[in-house]
Specification:
Blueprint (H helix, E strand, L loop, with lengths): L6 H22 L8 H12 L5 H19 L6 H20 L10 H21 L7 H12 L3 H20 L1 H26 L1 E7 L3 H11 L5 E6 L6 E9 L1 H14 L4 E7 L10
Antiparallel strand pairs: 1-3, 1-4, 2-3
Helix pairs in contact: 1-4, 1-5, 2-3, 2-7, 3-4, 3-6, 5-8, 6-7, 7-8, 9-10
Length: about 280
């Protein structure tokens, strides 16, 4: 399905690209940490042919991978991924020209790896969560995810492992193992950040103002409610439990509303990592 243009999504994608590019340019690329992706391919090839800039190699690699993507997935893959991958390649190239960093800004290789991967992972998660990708091996990961239902972070780990092993031959075993460790961290960062973006809150409420609370949730928050019937173990009286699933912001609104109309209401909440159906997208 073609991804429709949405200004909020577009801004989030661009912010994700900037964060991703910063993590690569400041920490990973200067330290020769080929932690997977087209960046990893570019670092390996740049070492072999140093006259070709990393940004240009990334651009060429993305074009090749997009040919494979459109052949395997089809033209409906969407223009967002093309835009994102080209924007990332261009941004890396601009950074190389404007603020060149030829050596690591800190000597500790592990610190470069950890900070680079954390920053890169947040940017990638923002992009992937908007239903697109930054191109490169993300495309391969999307294919694996589509046909196996494996989480996107773990799919990316499988796609990037071969690049990390190649880096071991080019930059030495130590750097290769660092890179392999990096893509393992990256897969967990991406899955964790995406899970955080998609977390919703299930709220159960017992209140004497059950009708008012239900009306507030349905009319003001535009969320559905389910009324469950129960009996109080201590009072032996019938209770009606209001059950709903909302965002964090909506939960705060519910809590504030209850403070005003029924301070004695009993509430319990639980975090839900995936919600599908009416009011929530598939």
């Amino acid at each position: 399905m073609e991804k429709k243009f949405d200004i909020k999504s577009f801004l989030i994608i661009n912010l994700g690209v900037i964060i991703l590019a910063l993590g690569l340019h400041i920490f990973l690329i200067p330290a020769d940490l080929a932690a997977g992706g087209v960046t990893g391919i570019a670092l390996v090839l740049n070492y072999i042919v140093p006259k070709i800039p990393v940004g240009i190699i990334m651009l060429i690699s993305n074009v090749v991978l997009f040919i494979l993507a459109f052949t395997i997935i089809g033209p409906g893959f969407g223009g967002y991924t093309i835009y994102t991958s080209l924007a990332l390649s261009a941004l890396i190239y601009i950074f190389e020209l404007v603020i060149p960093i030829n050596t690591p800004i800190i000597d500790d290789l592990m610190l470069n790896l950890i900070y680079g991967i954390l920053i890169q992972g947040i940017g990638m998660a923002m992009i992937l969560n908007e239903g697109t990708s930054s191109g490169g091996t993300d495309i391969i990961a999307k294919i694996i995810n589509k046909f196996t239902n494996l989480e996107i972070g773990k799919s990316l780990f499988l796609a990037d492992a071969l690049i990390a092993l190649s880096a071991a031959f080019i930059f030495g075993l130590e750097l290769g193992l660092y890179a392999l460790f990096g893509i393992l961290i990256n897969s967990f960062v991406i899955d964790s950040v995406i899970a955080g973006f998609n977390t919703k809150i299930e709220v159960a409420i017992i209140s004497n103002k059950e009708k008012e609370v239900s009306k507030f949730i349905t009319n003001e928050l535009k969320r559905g409610v389910t009324l469950l019937y129960g009996v109080g173990g201590f009072s032996n009286s019938e209770k009606r439990i209001i059950n709903t699933v909302v965002s964090r912001r909506e939960y705060i609104k519910i809590k504030n509303h209850l403070k005003e109309i029924d301070p004695n209401a009993f509430i319990w909440v639980s975090f839900v990592h995936e919600v599908l159906g009416e009011g929530f997208s598939y």
